[in-house]
Design goal:
Chain A is mainly beta and about 70 residues long. Chain A contains one helix and five strands; from the N terminus they run E-E-H-E-E-E. Chain B contains eleven helices and ten strands. In chain B, helix 1 runs antiparallel to helix 2, helix 5 runs parallel beside helix 6 and helix 5 crosses helix 11. Classes of the chains: A mainly beta (about 70), B alpha/beta (about 270).
Protein backbone atom coordinates (compact mmCIF):
# COMPACT_ATOMS: atom_id res chain seq x y z
CA UNK A 1 0.00 0.00 0.00
CA UNK A 2 1.06 3.59 -0.63
CA UNK A 3 1.80 5.80 2.34
CA UNK A 4 2.92 9.41 2.00
CA UNK A 5 5.64 10.10 4.55
CA UNK A 6 6.57 13.65 5.55
CA UNK A 7 9.71 14.23 7.58
CA UNK A 8 10.70 17.38 9.44
CA UNK A 9 13.89 19.06 10.70
CA UNK A 10 16.84 16.70 11.25
CA UNK A 11 14.85 13.66 10.10
CA UNK A 12 15.12 15.04 6.55
CA UNK A 13 18.90 14.97 6.54
CA UNK A 14 20.10 12.10 4.34
CA UNK A 15 16.46 11.02 3.77
CA UNK A 16 13.74 13.22 2.18
CA UNK A 17 11.13 15.82 3.11
CA UNK A 18 8.18 14.09 1.45
CA UNK A 19 7.94 10.72 -0.31
CA UNK A 20 5.32 8.22 -1.38
CA UNK A 21 6.41 4.81 -0.11
CA UNK A 22 5.21 1.24 -0.45
CA UNK A 23 4.48 -0.77 2.70
CA UNK A 24 2.75 -4.10 3.28
CA UNK A 25 -0.79 -4.09 4.72
CA UNK A 26 -1.00 -3.81 8.54
CA UNK A 27 2.20 -1.71 8.67
CA UNK A 28 2.37 0.31 11.89
CA UNK A 29 3.93 3.71 12.47
CA UNK A 30 6.78 2.03 14.37
CA UNK A 31 7.55 -0.09 11.28
CA UNK A 32 7.99 3.05 9.18
CA UNK A 33 10.18 4.59 11.90
CA UNK A 34 12.40 1.49 11.85
CA UNK A 35 12.38 1.28 8.04
CA UNK A 36 13.66 4.87 7.87
CA UNK A 37 16.16 4.25 10.68
CA UNK A 38 14.81 7.17 12.72
CA UNK A 39 16.18 7.19 16.29
CA UNK A 40 13.22 6.35 18.54
CA UNK A 41 14.52 8.38 21.47
CA UNK A 42 14.33 11.48 19.25
CA UNK A 43 10.68 11.08 18.22
CA UNK A 44 8.42 14.07 18.77
CA UNK A 45 5.02 14.50 17.21
CA UNK A 46 3.60 11.69 15.04
CA UNK A 47 0.56 12.48 12.93
CA UNK A 48 -1.56 10.52 10.49
CA UNK A 49 -3.75 12.68 8.27
CA UNK A 50 -3.18 15.57 10.70
CA UNK A 51 -4.29 13.57 13.78
CA UNK A 52 -1.88 12.75 16.60
CA UNK A 53 -1.11 9.05 16.87
CA UNK A 54 1.07 6.61 18.79
CA UNK A 55 3.72 4.26 17.43
CA UNK A 56 1.38 1.26 17.34
CA UNK A 57 -1.14 2.96 15.02
CA UNK A 58 -1.86 0.72 12.00
CA UNK A 59 -1.61 2.58 8.70
CA UNK A 60 -4.16 2.38 5.90
CA UNK A 61 -3.60 2.75 2.13
CA UNK A 62 -3.37 6.39 1.06
CA UNK A 63 -2.72 7.89 4.49
CA UNK A 64 -0.14 10.60 5.18
CA UNK A 65 2.25 10.10 8.09
CA UNK A 66 4.14 13.13 9.43
CA UNK A 67 7.10 12.64 11.78
CA UNK A 68 8.74 15.44 13.80
CA UNK A 69 11.83 15.08 15.97
CA UNK A 70 11.66 16.10 19.64
CA UNK A 71 12.73 19.69 20.24
CA UNK A 72 13.22 20.75 23.84
CA UNK A 73 16.11 23.20 24.09
CA UNK A 74 15.99 26.69 25.49
CA UNK B 1 0.10 63.65 43.92
CA UNK B 2 -1.98 66.48 42.49
CA UNK B 3 1.10 68.68 42.19
CA UNK B 4 2.84 65.87 40.30
CA UNK B 5 -0.15 65.41 38.03
CA UNK B 6 -0.30 69.14 37.34
CA UNK B 7 3.40 69.17 36.51
CA UNK B 8 3.11 66.20 34.16
CA UNK B 9 0.07 67.65 32.38
CA UNK B 10 1.88 70.94 31.97
CA UNK B 11 5.05 69.30 30.65
CA UNK B 12 3.39 66.89 28.23
CA UNK B 13 4.24 67.57 24.62
CA UNK B 14 1.73 65.93 22.28
CA UNK B 15 0.90 63.54 25.11
CA UNK B 16 4.53 62.56 25.65
CA UNK B 17 6.70 62.87 28.78
CA UNK B 18 10.43 62.67 28.16
CA UNK B 19 12.85 60.54 30.14
CA UNK B 20 14.48 63.69 31.54
CA UNK B 21 11.11 64.97 32.77
CA UNK B 22 10.22 61.58 34.28
CA UNK B 23 13.56 61.45 36.09
CA UNK B 24 13.26 65.03 37.35
CA UNK B 25 9.71 64.41 38.59
CA UNK B 26 10.85 61.30 40.47
CA UNK B 27 13.61 63.29 42.14
CA UNK B 28 11.43 66.31 42.93
CA UNK B 29 8.66 64.23 44.52
CA UNK B 30 10.87 61.56 46.08
CA UNK B 31 9.28 58.80 44.02
CA UNK B 32 10.55 55.77 42.17
CA UNK B 33 10.63 55.88 38.37
CA UNK B 34 7.93 53.19 38.32
CA UNK B 35 5.65 55.33 40.49
CA UNK B 36 6.02 58.30 38.15
CA UNK B 37 5.38 56.00 35.18
CA UNK B 38 2.15 54.87 36.82
CA UNK B 39 1.07 58.51 37.20
CA UNK B 40 2.00 59.35 33.60
CA UNK B 41 0.02 56.44 32.17
CA UNK B 42 -2.86 57.08 34.60
CA UNK B 43 -3.20 60.59 33.16
CA UNK B 44 -3.49 59.16 29.66
CA UNK B 45 0.02 60.39 28.83
CA UNK B 46 2.90 58.32 27.52
CA UNK B 47 6.59 58.15 28.37
CA UNK B 48 8.39 59.08 25.14
CA UNK B 49 10.22 55.73 25.17
CA UNK B 50 6.94 54.14 24.04
CA UNK B 51 6.29 56.66 21.25
CA UNK B 52 6.91 54.05 18.54
CA UNK B 53 4.47 51.67 20.26
CA UNK B 54 1.66 54.20 20.10
CA UNK B 55 0.23 53.33 16.68
CA UNK B 56 -0.26 49.68 17.65
CA UNK B 57 -0.50 49.87 21.45
CA UNK B 58 -2.79 52.61 22.80
CA UNK B 59 -1.99 54.52 25.98
CA UNK B 60 -4.66 52.49 27.81
CA UNK B 61 -3.01 49.30 26.56
CA UNK B 62 0.43 50.56 27.56
CA UNK B 63 -1.04 51.07 31.04
CA UNK B 64 -2.36 47.50 30.91
CA UNK B 65 1.13 46.20 30.07
CA UNK B 66 2.61 48.29 32.89
CA UNK B 67 0.19 46.78 35.40
CA UNK B 68 0.95 43.22 34.25
CA UNK B 69 3.18 40.61 35.84
CA UNK B 70 4.96 38.12 33.61
CA UNK B 71 7.03 35.21 34.92
CA UNK B 72 9.89 34.07 32.69
CA UNK B 73 11.21 30.65 33.64
CA UNK B 74 14.79 30.35 32.37
CA UNK B 75 17.29 33.16 31.70
CA UNK B 76 19.41 31.46 29.04
CA UNK B 77 19.06 31.41 25.24
CA UNK B 78 15.32 32.05 25.01
CA UNK B 79 15.03 33.79 28.38
CA UNK B 80 17.62 36.49 27.68
CA UNK B 81 15.82 37.74 24.58
CA UNK B 82 12.39 37.35 26.18
CA UNK B 83 13.39 39.39 29.25
CA UNK B 84 14.90 42.13 27.09
CA UNK B 85 11.82 42.40 24.88
CA UNK B 86 9.35 42.37 27.78
CA UNK B 87 11.26 45.22 29.47
CA UNK B 88 11.38 47.29 26.29
CA UNK B 89 7.69 46.56 25.68
CA UNK B 90 6.94 48.08 29.10
CA UNK B 91 5.66 45.12 31.09
CA UNK B 92 5.68 46.53 34.63
CA UNK B 93 6.59 43.46 36.67
CA UNK B 94 8.94 40.82 35.38
CA UNK B 95 9.93 37.73 37.35
CA UNK B 96 13.13 35.99 36.24
CA UNK B 97 13.89 32.46 37.43
CA UNK B 98 17.11 30.51 36.83
CA UNK B 99 19.54 28.73 39.13
CA UNK B 100 22.51 28.93 36.79
CA UNK B 101 25.60 31.09 36.23
CA UNK B 102 27.02 32.25 32.89
CA UNK B 103 29.55 29.98 31.23
CA UNK B 104 31.76 30.52 28.22
CA UNK B 105 29.68 28.24 25.99
CA UNK B 106 26.69 30.59 26.52
CA UNK B 107 28.40 33.47 24.67
CA UNK B 108 27.35 32.37 21.16
CA UNK B 109 23.66 33.01 21.85
CA UNK B 110 22.63 34.18 25.32
CA UNK B 111 21.88 37.88 25.19
CA UNK B 112 22.68 38.51 28.84
CA UNK B 113 26.06 36.80 28.68
CA UNK B 114 29.37 38.57 28.05
CA UNK B 115 33.00 37.84 28.89
CA UNK B 116 32.70 40.20 31.87
CA UNK B 117 29.68 38.25 33.18
CA UNK B 118 31.25 34.77 33.11
CA UNK B 119 30.67 33.04 36.44
CA UNK B 120 27.97 35.52 37.46
CA UNK B 121 24.45 34.54 38.50
CA UNK B 122 22.14 34.83 35.48
CA UNK B 123 19.16 36.37 37.28
CA UNK B 124 21.39 39.01 38.89
CA UNK B 125 22.71 40.03 35.48
CA UNK B 126 19.09 40.08 34.25
CA UNK B 127 18.10 42.56 36.97
CA UNK B 128 21.00 44.85 36.05
CA UNK B 129 20.28 44.73 32.32
CA UNK B 130 16.53 45.25 32.59
CA UNK B 131 16.88 48.05 35.12
CA UNK B 132 19.41 49.69 32.83
CA UNK B 133 17.25 49.58 29.69
CA UNK B 134 13.92 50.37 31.37
CA UNK B 135 14.14 51.70 34.93
CA UNK B 136 10.32 51.81 35.18
CA UNK B 137 10.19 48.00 35.19
CA UNK B 138 10.32 46.14 38.51
CA UNK B 139 12.32 42.92 38.22
CA UNK B 140 11.96 40.08 40.74
CA UNK B 141 14.87 37.62 40.56
CA UNK B 142 14.74 34.06 41.89
CA UNK B 143 17.99 32.12 41.77
CA UNK B 144 16.22 28.80 41.81
CA UNK B 145 15.36 25.83 39.68
CA UNK B 146 11.68 25.69 38.77
CA UNK B 147 10.17 22.60 40.41
CA UNK B 148 6.73 21.35 41.35
CA UNK B 149 7.50 22.21 44.98
CA UNK B 150 8.17 25.94 44.41
CA UNK B 151 5.75 26.43 41.50
CA UNK B 152 2.92 28.09 43.43
CA UNK B 153 5.30 30.60 45.03
CA UNK B 154 7.14 31.45 41.80
CA UNK B 155 4.03 31.80 39.64
CA UNK B 156 1.92 33.71 42.20
CA UNK B 157 -0.13 36.58 40.74
CA UNK B 158 1.24 36.06 37.23
CA UNK B 159 -0.84 37.24 34.28
CA UNK B 160 1.24 35.12 31.93
CA UNK B 161 4.04 32.57 32.27
CA UNK B 162 6.79 32.08 29.68
CA UNK B 163 8.47 28.71 29.23
CA UNK B 164 12.15 29.34 28.44
CA UNK B 165 13.61 26.29 30.17
CA UNK B 166 15.93 23.74 28.57
CA UNK B 167 14.45 20.39 29.49
CA UNK B 168 11.21 18.52 28.94
CA UNK B 169 10.67 17.56 32.59
CA UNK B 170 10.59 21.21 33.69
CA UNK B 171 8.39 22.10 30.71
CA UNK B 172 5.77 19.50 31.66
CA UNK B 173 5.91 20.53 35.34
CA UNK B 174 5.51 24.17 34.33
CA UNK B 175 2.55 23.32 32.11
CA UNK B 176 0.91 21.37 34.94
CA UNK B 177 1.45 24.21 37.44
CA UNK B 178 0.17 26.87 35.00
CA UNK B 179 -2.86 24.75 34.29
CA UNK B 180 -3.61 24.33 37.99
CA UNK B 181 -3.19 28.05 38.66
CA UNK B 182 -5.16 28.88 35.47
CA UNK B 183 -2.41 31.07 34.03
CA UNK B 184 -1.75 31.26 30.26
CA UNK B 185 1.61 29.74 29.32
CA UNK B 186 3.66 30.67 26.27
CA UNK B 187 5.93 27.77 25.36
CA UNK B 188 8.98 27.87 23.10
CA UNK B 189 11.64 25.26 22.36
CA UNK B 190 14.65 25.25 20.07
CA UNK B 191 17.32 22.96 18.62
CA UNK B 192 19.86 24.04 16.03
CA UNK B 193 18.02 25.38 12.95
CA UNK B 194 14.65 24.38 14.37
CA UNK B 195 12.14 25.41 16.96
CA UNK B 196 8.49 25.75 17.84
CA UNK B 197 6.14 27.95 19.81
CA UNK B 198 2.65 27.46 21.20
CA UNK B 199 0.39 29.22 23.69
CA UNK B 200 -1.30 27.04 26.28
CA UNK B 201 -4.50 28.52 27.64
CA UNK B 202 -5.92 27.16 30.91
CA UNK B 203 -7.58 23.83 30.13
CA UNK B 204 -5.49 23.06 27.03
CA UNK B 205 -3.19 20.02 27.17
CA UNK B 206 -0.93 21.12 24.32
CA UNK B 207 2.39 20.22 25.95
CA UNK B 208 1.21 16.72 26.78
CA UNK B 209 0.41 16.37 23.06
CA UNK B 210 3.75 17.79 21.89
CA UNK B 211 5.73 15.52 24.20
CA UNK B 212 3.48 12.45 24.19
CA UNK B 213 6.25 10.30 22.66
CA UNK B 214 8.91 11.62 25.01
CA UNK B 215 10.74 8.80 26.79
CA UNK B 216 13.08 10.92 28.92
CA UNK B 217 16.26 12.82 28.15
CA UNK B 218 16.94 15.65 25.74
CA UNK B 219 15.63 16.29 22.24
CA UNK B 220 17.71 16.86 19.11
CA UNK B 221 19.23 19.96 20.78
CA UNK B 222 21.55 17.54 22.60
CA UNK B 223 23.41 16.86 19.34
CA UNK B 224 22.71 20.14 17.49
CA UNK B 225 23.30 22.80 20.14
CA UNK B 226 21.87 26.25 19.40
CA UNK B 227 23.15 29.18 17.31
CA UNK B 228 22.55 32.92 17.90
CA UNK B 229 19.49 33.39 15.71
CA UNK B 230 17.16 30.51 16.64
CA UNK B 231 16.61 31.58 20.26
CA UNK B 232 16.03 35.17 19.12
CA UNK B 233 13.40 34.02 16.61
CA UNK B 234 11.52 31.76 19.03
CA UNK B 235 11.76 34.40 21.78
CA UNK B 236 10.27 37.09 19.52
CA UNK B 237 7.36 34.83 18.60
CA UNK B 238 6.82 34.08 22.29
CA UNK B 239 6.86 37.75 23.35
CA UNK B 240 4.37 38.67 20.62
CA UNK B 241 2.09 36.01 22.10
CA UNK B 242 2.62 37.35 25.64
CA UNK B 243 1.74 40.85 24.42
CA UNK B 244 -1.51 39.54 22.90
CA UNK B 245 -2.36 37.51 26.01
CA UNK B 246 -1.90 40.60 28.21
CA UNK B 247 -3.92 42.85 25.89
CA UNK B 248 -6.55 40.29 24.90
CA UNK B 249 -5.81 41.02 21.25
CA UNK B 250 -5.32 39.09 18.04
CA UNK B 251 -5.40 35.38 17.38
CA UNK B 252 -3.33 33.30 19.79
CA UNK B 253 -1.36 30.15 18.98
CA UNK B 254 -3.73 28.19 21.17
CA UNK B 255 -4.22 24.50 20.32
CA UNK B 256 -1.74 24.90 17.48
CA UNK B 257 2.02 24.85 17.29
CA UNK B 258 4.10 26.93 14.92
CA UNK B 259 7.21 24.96 13.97
CA UNK B 260 10.03 26.67 12.13
CA UNK B 261 12.93 25.32 10.15
CA UNK B 262 15.29 28.09 9.09
CA UNK B 263 17.59 25.65 7.26
CA UNK B 264 14.86 24.97 4.68
CA UNK B 265 13.16 28.29 5.66
CA UNK B 266 9.74 26.81 6.34
CA UNK B 267 7.10 27.42 8.96
CA UNK B 268 4.38 24.84 9.50
CA UNK B 269 1.34 24.91 11.72
CA UNK B 270 0.49 21.74 13.62
CA UNK B 271 -2.92 21.48 15.25
CA UNK B 272 -2.70 20.23 18.83
Amino acid sequence: MKITVKLFATFRLGRFDIASRDYPPETKVIDVVKDLDLPEEQLGILMVNSRHVDLDRVLVEGETLAIFPLVGGG
Amino acid sequence: MNALQDLLRQQADEGLISWGQQQAAAQQFGLRISEVEQEILGLGLLPTRYQRNRQMISVAQQRQLFSSRVVVVGAGGLGGYILEQLARLGVGQIVTIDDDIFEENNLNRQLLSSPANLGRVKVEVAVERLTEINPAVTVYPFQARFEKQNAAKLLANADCVVDAVDNVTARLDLAAASRELKIPLVHGAIAGWYGHVTTVLPGDDSLQTIYRNWKGGKGIEASLGNPSFTPALAASLQVSEVCKVLLGQGKLLSKRKLSFDVLDMEMVEVLL
